[in-house]
Design brief:
Layout lengths: L7 E10 L4 E6 L12 E4 L2 E8 L3 E6 L1 H6 L10 E6 L18 E11 L2 E7 L2 H4 L7 E4 L2 E9 L2 E6 L1 H6 L10 E6 L1 H12 L9 H7 L4
Length: about 220
């Protein structure tokens, strides 16, 4: 489990690419302070398992499913990446529940500065838009953000100065792809509702939520 609060910007030192898989070697420092083989580190929002490490780099494998459903295969040697360790049980929860299981990708449509904020609009598929709501949470390249607006197949998020300075999002250009993870609570609620939307299974929503422990 992650929070979407990026700890460090790392650099892709090496990438071994198979037909439908990857092996990434990432240069880093902060996320390696207490690392062990088998630990989870989110790379641009994708939960990866550390297979080996040194004082200044770690290696992780990317399986075919992740290869096809995220932007990791688009990285190049030298690419900057957002990094976050899995949250410790004694940590502070500063963002929102982020699993590192990316739901899909989007493309940046526009960037606009307004005083100290930068608004970024991202095109998102209809299947993902169903889980997004204004003022709700979303992870973009692993960064916990609040949805500012949803309109015409796009979601708009706002970057505060800290996020502008400590993530890779400001370096993204129009047309660049980003990883999108929708709020896990919204996904569970939608799936729960779908299971009961057949006529023979329909129930009053309040009764359904109470039955399953939500209220």
């Amino acid at each position: 489990m992650f929070t979407g609060i990026i700890e460090e910007i790392g650099f892709l030192k090496n990438m071994r690419k198979g037909p439908h898989s990857l092996q990434l070697t990432v240069q880093a420092s902060d996320v390696l302070r207490d690392v062990r083989a088998g630990d989870s580190i989110a790379v641009n929002g994708v939960c990866l398992t550390v297979t080996s490490y040194t004082q200044n780099e770690f290696t992780a494998d990317v399986m075919p499913e992740t290869f096809h459903s995220t932007t990791l295969s688009m990285l190049k040697t030298g690419s900057k990446v957002n990094l976050e360790r899995a949250m410790g049980a004694n940590g502070r929860f500063g963002g929102h529940f982020v699993t590192g299981h990316v739901d899909g990708t989007g493309a940046i449509c526009s960037k606009k500065r307004e005083e100290n904020a930068v608004y970024i609009s991202i095109s998102v598929s209809p299947s993902l838009l169903a889980y997004l709501v204004p003022k709700g949470s979303v992870a973009v390249d692993g960064t916990s953000l609040t949805v500012f607006r949803i309109e015409d197949g796009e979601m708009t998020v706002s970057l505060v100065p800290h996020t502008q300075q400590h993530t890779i999002l400001m370096e993204k250009n129009i047309g660049d792809a980003v990883n999108i993870e929708c709020d896990i609570l919204a996904k569970y609620m939608a799936e729960l509702y779908r299971k009961w939307e057949h006529p023979e299974k329909k129930k009053d929503m309040a009764a359904l939520l109470k039955e399953n422990g939500f209220i």
